[in-house]
Design goal:
The structure holds 2 protein chains of 2 kinds. Chain A has 12 helices and 68 strands. By secondary structure, chain A is mostly beta strands. Among the domains of chain A are: 713-758 and 778-851, Lipocalin, CATH 2.40.128; 861-930, no CATH class. In chain A, β47 (622-627) and β48 form a beta hairpin. By secondary structure, chain B is α+β, with helices and mostly antiparallel strands. Among the domains of chain B are: 15-106, Ubiquitin-like (UB roll) (Roll); 143-253, PDZ domain (Pdz3 Domain, Roll), CATH 2.30.42.10. Chain B has helices at residues 39-49, 74-83, 106-111, 116-120, 122-128, 202-206, 228-237, 269-278, 300-304, 338-360, 368-379, 383-393, and strands spanning 15-22, 25-32, 57-62, 68-71, 87-94, 143-146, 156-161, 171-182, 185-197, 214-218, 221-222, 241-247, 312-315. In chain B, the strands form 2 sheets. In chain B, strands 6, 7, 8, 9, 10, 11 and 12 form a 7-stranded antiparallel beta sheet that branches. In chain B, β3 (57-62) and β4 form a beta hairpin. In chain B, 43% of the residues are buried. Classes of the chains: A mainly beta, B alpha+beta. Chains A and B meet through β48, β49, β55, β58 and β59 of A and β8, α7, α9, β13 and α10 of B. β49 (705-708) of chain A pairs antiparallel with β8 (171-182) of chain B, so a sheet runs across the interface.
Chain lengths: 1015, 399
């Protein structure tokens, strides 16, 4: 009887076709720095650099924009990578003792998006070789690969192992040449007795091919022995009887010398002279940071110029600087100790490989650190560092929020670039990027896209997100608005005079001076160049772009959001003290006004309307509206529920509660252990206690259960303001429209205010500046309060015009940058809560359509965006679509304003909570989310707009493929006025037409839905 | 819905004998069982036969169990007519006298004396029996078993009505595993179970749900393959009108569907109470055709009318609200009695919201005067006044 069924979703073939032309999901490219890098390699011929990670990923980088990514089947750490120079081929060794061969393979020519792609190359795993463990030995540690050496001829691969054996594999098949294997016994035989002394030589630590004589390799054993081995004749040419534990070896270009680095922090230079089989002493031996005990020099490079350059990592005095991550560059008297903030993984130099040239003449040093890539210019005196065009450490301070701006005007773009150039430190050089594999022949992107990231240290970084390489443009710091310690910086600069001559390099700095500086919300108006940045301590800063340096005092305005509510005391952190003296502000965004919310809780929502000069901001206590033009507080409203005590405690006490719960769980573990022991000895007297303990335990360690209770008004943190919306719409009646402000809270409340903005008369902006107007104030009058009965947090509010399209951004309509909104037909408002999407008519707020996502699917809405999808096939067809990311990590797409489900894509793992929380959408159907603290995954939901790497590489140096990268930006920048979507031209779908809406999962709709439609 | 007006034919005689008692007077007349007519006609007829044209009456009848039940709408009127076997005994009371007279009384039922005693000595009964069924207008459904006709006997679909009461739903769910029969044999699959009932909560008080009942569906959507958190979210999202299909851990109390009239009524003593409490609300005589009064089949219309979706919209600010709100026209026709309560409630809410607003506005805005005015308006206690002000100010829109 209750089977009141609706038609199943009619699979209209035409609609299905349109959907295919509009929507397609693809993860396109990963921006940022690979998480936990573990290996580095460089191909000097193709000028490509490869980085392997602990999760089994391999990334190849060339010129900016050239990128390849490969992922091993197992997520095992990549320990080593080797390029076969010039072949477009590389070998990777994994932690599980397998070798994998990867090749850059040309794809067949095909047409993508109307553009012919020729020789597009992708990275593929071709072959893998697993080293067998010795039978009988449980772990294969003896045959575990420690080092690899690829001979210059590229046909043989030598492998050093933990057991001290050296194996030779034939390329490209990776087949073992049994007869070439050199076991340690073989070497020990030729050793003098006093050196042998019955001990093993230890693992092979280094393998280096003779730079001049092919077929001769230098084998370094851990114990200190170095052997010059002739592969063809299979005998040791020379033996170097080192006594210090060996770390690495390097040849001098001529082959007359080699250098060994040791565990004690020293390095030795050995001469290779013919005739003498045994070499007992090195030519010279140095411990550069001695005489006190030093840490090992893990890797050393010896490069020749007119005078040799020595580069080595480690070797620091153990007691005083043993915890530093350092790399030293030495040449003649010059000596620099590069002091990094994270561990050195590996490094190489870009230098001359031609055999004809006399010197190496290294041009650049590339250091892969755990958290960033640092490149040092070795040609410029003073060895300055080179800004990286990609692999930027997004997480140099932890990312706290992000914001994307599409279609940035060239003017603003240039001003940002100039501001960025002005702040680059004097230690930066502007020399060409040394890793330049291939050329980026793709036309410049058709529109400039900005990605803004807010960080824990109070900085906002501006990134060029137009292409495949995410390039830093400009960095804004908000710390100087506040009173902070300046003395510290000066001290650091003085520090450089000491020994060793440290120099801080790199920008990864995870330690924030003050967590209150953290940025929580960002909003940028690309037309008026106004920026609002809001932070953890309730600070809201309005900034304007200025090309000149300026010293000024920032206006401070304090807004009490509690509004004299009694019985509340804020137990959280204090507000940041504003700077009392004028501060120098560099060209770029400079603060105009600082608004301080009280209590200084973290800002949870912010909105900017530059045409009305208004900024709205909310915390867990309430929200405020501020006119930054007249420096006038317009409105403050408390949203706090009287019973909400948690909101007052601030973040600190929440940490306490975490501690408490940790303590409890530890106690629980301990208890269960204790009771486990007890069970072994059961005596009659203890039985009662035992039973009691078991009961108590049972109560404590209850199975995971969830309480089923509707949300109530006095749930904690119900007053948190979640979103704002400024709109010029009909709030009071159906004939007069005007500025409105909408605010949504965590408890499903929506407040709509009618605004009186001087100069804005029923939606038409008049020319500003009249004397009479400027004396008038903006006023806000509460128009409506909506309480969603399900009380779920309001995630987003958006007003739709008479055609059901979102209202344009400030200035877009008045500057003819978009089609004017339809003000003749009735407007509606989309309120997206965590549980439901609902469209209400305006001004009478009655429900028109809704979709009860949680009730049907059991997932909750996390992020919502209105996106304009353009058809990949039909030039001028586009649709506004509601994209909705849920807590299950999937994307649901709904048409607007009918809210009919269109497609669903799995995007993020549901366990990846930070990934889901970090997701940001662009206006044309792309998005970003963090896959690690340092990497953004870029994805596209649009069939038309996608930016992904498509490159080719000159393979085998014979077939010259064009190398290019294409950004398929399509026609997304076509003025919107030309886009007419016939389906949506009807003023709001008639409610009845929604009756064929069905949900795949349910098959049943509630009649209440129908009632809504029929009203 | 198609079954709604089917009349039980087997035992129906064409005429129903009616014995109506008002005070000390009796009237006897008969009604056509097949064409009972509407309640208001019936009401007029009663006033006529007792010659009390202007007296407000409460009409009650004795049902087969001897309970005194009200007749105040078409549904229970039809129900009374259809169950009269063959005599329909009516008890009329003046409205002002008749407070809290409808009561179930296990003692009287046991003694099998009909309610005349109750009526004759109302004071005595009231003292004796603290369990009182309130006036018909206060009846509200708390829970019901639905869809027995389409569900397997081992399953039970329970509807919990959260709306309009302060009682918590009061149950917890947990993960577990359940055994399913598959073509490959028995298979253990993850499942969701009720893990705990809160004493005094709605779930416990209905007696329809128990610990370790396996949850199969939430509002018609299968939970198989969904995580505990997903099911939790689904239940909370539907909490105002929660329909859960369970496989009871205790399979002995299952409703036996095949049995004829009234046979199953004793199967679950607890649930018969809840059944009785909701049946003033059964629409269009749906229950008439049902074998037992505890089993309710709701018309789709009623089932889906979950009032939870009435988001509350409070208007404020406009000095002269130009739009007339005719909004309340859309609200559940099947449950008109909710309206006054709801509106009263919302009116007070709005009043408090206004006061918050006036406190909360920052620099005295122009509108504060008008807000106070509105405040005064909506705070007037007379329900009539409230109703009117609601409409004029458009304070409440039921959506």
């Amino acid at each position: 009887m209750m089977k009141f069924r609706f038609r199943r979703q009619s699979t209209d073939p035409q609609r299905e076709k349109i959907k295919q032309e509009l929507f397609a999901f693809k993860k396109t490219v990963e921006h940022g720095f690979p998480h936990q890098p573990s290996a580095l390699a460089f191909d000097p011929k193709l000028q490509l650099m490869a980085i392997g990670t602990k999760s089994g990923a391999i990334k190849i980088y060339g010129a900016p924009g050239v990128e390849f990514t490969g992922l091993h089947k197992d997520t095992t750490a990549v320990t080593q990578i080797l390029f076969l120079p010039g072949r477009g081929c590389l070998l990777s060794v994994l932690d599980d003792n397998t070798i994998h061969r990867w090749e850059l393979v040309a794809e067949s020519t095909r047409e993508v998006g109307g553009v012919k792609k020729e020789g597009v190359v992708s990275l593929r795993e071709v072959d893998s070789y697993s080293l067998p463990g010795r039978p009988g030995i449980e772990s294969s540690s003896a045959t575990r690969v420690t080092v690899l050496l690829l001979l210059k001829s590229c046909d043989l691969l030598c492998m050093g192992t933990e057991g001290g054996g050296v194996y030779v594999l034939e390329l490209p098949r990776l087949s073992l040449k049994e007869n070439q294997t050199l076991l340690q016994d073989h070497v020990t035989q030729s050793l003098p007795d006093d050196y042998r002394c019955g001990k093993s030589l230890g693992p092979v630590e280094s393998l280096q091919e003779h730079p001049q004589q092919a077929g001769k390799i230098l084998i370094g054993y851990s114990r200190g022995l170095v052997v010059l081995w002739d592969l063809s004749s299979r005998h040791a040419d020379q033996l170097f009887l080192g006594k210090q534990q060996l770390e690495s070896l390097v040849w001098e270009r001529s082959g007359n010398l080699f250098v060994s680095s040791h565990n004690d922090g020293g390095y030795s230079v050995w001469a290779v002279t013919n005739g003498n089989i045994y070499n007992h002493q090195p030519v010279s031996s140095t411990i550069p940071y001695g005489p006190f005990p030093c840490k090992a020099i893990t890797k050393i490079l010896w490069r020749t110029t007119h005078s040799p350059v020595i580069l080595y990592s480690g070797g620091m005095p153990r007691a005083s600087y043993g915890d530093r991550h350092c790399l030293t560059i030495q040449q003649d008297k010059e000596h620099v100790t590069l002091d990094f903030t994270s561990r050195v993984i590996d490094f190489f130099t870009v230098h001359n490989m031609d055999n004809d040239k006399e010197f190496d003449d290294p041009s650049a040093l590339v250091v892969l650190l755990e958290e960033e890539l640092v490149v040092i210019d070795l040609l410029t005196p003073g060895w300055p560092s080179l800004p990286t065009p990609y692999l930027a450490p997004l997480h140099s301070s932890a990312i706290t929020c992000s914001c994307h701006v599409t279609n940035v005007s060239t003017k603003l773009w240039e001003r940002l670039i100039n501001a960025g150039k002005a702040q680059q430190s004097r230690r930066h050089t502007h020399r060409k990027w040394p890793i330049c594999g291939g050329k980026n022949l793709a036309p410049p992107p058709r529109q400039q896209e900005l990605l803004l990231t807010g960080h824990e240290d109070g900085t906002v970084r501006f990134w060029d997100a137009s292409g495949v390489a995410l390039t830093p443009l400009y960095k804004l710091s908000t710390a100087n608005v506040f009173h902070t310690d300046e003395m510290q910086q000066q001290q650091e600069e003085e520090e450089e005079e000491e020994w060793p001559p440290f120099r801080k390099v790199g920008c990864f700095d995870p330690y924030s001076d003050d967590p209150r500086l953290g940025i929580q919300k960002i909003s940028l108006c690309k037309y008026s160049n106004k920026l609002v940045v809001a932070g953890t301590a309730g600070q809201v800063i309005v900034l304007g772009l200025n090309d000149e340096r300026s010293d000024h005092l920032v206006d401070v305005s304090v807004m009490d959001l509690l509004q004299d509510r009694e019985g509340f005391t804020w137990k959280g952190h204090d507000r940041l003290e504003p700077r009392l003296k004028p501060a120098p502000f560099l060209p770029g965004f400079q603060p105009l006004v600082l608004l301080q919310c009280l209590p200084p809780a973290s800002v949870t929502a912010v909105a900017l309307h530059t045409e009305w000069n208004l900024v709205a901001f909310g915390t867990s206590h309430g929200f405020g509206l501020f006119d930054y033009h007249r420096r006038n507080a317009v409105l403050a409203r408390c949203t706090l529920h009287p019973n909400d005590s948690l909101a007052m405690e601030g973040p600190l006490s929440r940490v306490k509660s975490l501690k408490k719960s940790l303590r409890q769980s530890f106690r629980r573990i301990r208890k269960s252990r204790v009771s486990g022991k007890k069970r072994a000895v059961i005596t009659t007297t203890s039985k009662v206690q035992e039973a009691n303990a078991a009961l108590a335990e049972q109560e404590e360690v209850a199975p995971v259960q969830r309480r089923i209770e509707p949300r109530s008004a006095d749930d904690s943190l119900s007053g948190v303001v979640r979103c704002f919306c400024f709109a010029d719409t009909f709030l009071r009646d159906g004939t007069h429209h005007g500025p409105t402000l909408w605010a949504g809270t965590n408890s499903g409340s929506v407040y709509a205010y009618a605004l009186e903005v001087p100069g804005v008369d029923s939606g038409r902006t008049c020319e500003r500046g009249g004397a009479s107007e400027s004396s008038m104030c903006v006023e806000a009058v509460l128009g409506k309060e909506i309480q969603l009965m399900h009380r779920a947090p309001v995630v987003s509010i958006c007003v739709l015009d008479g055609r059901g399209k979102p209202l344009p951004d400030p200035y877009e309509a008045s500057q003819d940058l978009s089609i004017a909104p339809d003000m003749t037909n009735a407007h509606s408002v989309l309120i997206a809560s965590e549980e439901q999407l609902k469209v209400f008519s305006l001004p009478k707020v009655s429900a028109k359509t809704k979709f009860k996502l949680t009730a049907h699917e059991g997932c909750r809405v996390r992020k919502v965006a209105l996106v304009l999808f353009s058809s990949a096939v039909q030039e001028e067809y586009s649709e506004h679509t509601l994209v909705c990311l849920t807590n299950m990590g999937d994307m649901h797409l709904f048409n607007m304003p009918g809210l009919r489900p269109q497609v669903r894509f799995d995007c993020i793992r549901k366990e990846d909570i930070s990934g889901i929380a970090s997701c940001v959408f662009t206006k044309n159907g792309q998005g970003f989310y963090l896959i690690s603290p340092s990497e953004y995954e870029r994805f596209s939901l649009s069939a038309k707009v996608l930016i992904k790497p498509q490159c080719s590489v000159p393979l085998n140096c014979v077939k010259m493929y064009f190398l290019y990268f294409s950004s398929l930006m399509g026609k997304a920048d076509v003025p919107r006025s030309t886009l007419s979507s016939p389906l949506l031209d009807t003023p709001l779908d008639s409610p009845l037409s929604c009756a064929d809406l069905t949900l795949d999962s349910t098959g049943e709709l509630t009649v209440e839905d129908v009632r809504d439609f029929l009203t | 819905m198609n079954k709604n007006h089917r009349v039980p034919s087997s035992r129906s005689l064409s005429a129903v004998e009616v014995k109506s008692k008002f005070g000390a007077e009796f009237r006897r007349f008969s009604l056509d069982r097949s064409k009972p007519g509407r309640f208001d006609e019936f009401y007029g007829l009663l006033q006529h036969v007792h010659r009390i044209p202007n007296v407000e009456l409460l009409v009650g009848y004795a049902d087969v169990h001897g309970d005194l039940l009200p007749i105040n709408n078409d549904d229970n009127y039809h129900k009374a007519i259809s169950t009269a076997n063959p005599l329909l005994r009516l008890f009329l009371q003046r409205k002002e006298e008749a407070e809290n007279t409808f009561a179930t009384d296990p003692l009287t039922r046991k003694k099998n004396t009909v309610l005349s005693a109750v009526l004759l000595r109302p004071d005595a009964t009231r003292k004796k029996h603290p369990v009182i069924i309130s006036l018909p207008k206060d009846f509200r459904p708390v829970s019901s078993i639905i869809d027995v006709d389409i569900l397997p006997e081992t399953h039970r679909r329970v509807r919990l009505y959260k709306h309009g009461q302060e009682k918590p739903l009061g149950f917890y769910i947990r993960d577990g595993s359940s055994v399913r029969v598959t073509p490959q044999g028995l298979e253990k699959v993850p499942a969701i179970f009720i893990s705990r009932l809160v004493p005094g909560g709605l779930a416990e008080s209905t007696g329809l749900l128990a610990v370790n009942d396996e949850v199969l569906e939430v509002n018609g959507i299968e939970v198989a393959g969904k995580s505990l958190d997903q099911v939790t979210d689904m239940m909370i999202a539907n909490s105002h009108n929660l329909i859960i299909t369970v496989k009871p851990a205790n399979q002995r109390n299952n409703v036996v569907r095949s049995g004829g009239g009234g046979a199953a009524s004793g199967s679950s003593g607890r649930s018969s109470d809840s059944g009785a409490s909701c049946y003033g609300y059964s629409t269009h005589g749906a229950t008439a055709s049902m074998p037992s009064h505890i089993i309710q089949n709701f018309s789709a219309g009623e089932l889906e009318s979950d009032e939870d979706e009435e988001d509350l919209v409070i208007e404020a600010g406009g000095e002269a609200e130009p739009i007339r709100r005719t909004s309340s026209t859309y609200s559940m026709p099947s449950m008109p009695r909710y309206e006054p309560h709801l509106n009263l409630r919302t009116a007070f809410t709005s009043a408090s919201a206004f006061s918050i607003h006036t406190n909360g506005t920052l620099p005295a805005s122009n509108s504060s005067g008008s807000l106070n005015h509105a405040d005064a308006n909506s705070a007037t206690p007379s329900p009539d006044r409230v109703r009117r002000s609601l409409e004029e100010e458009g304070t409440v829109i039921t959506l």
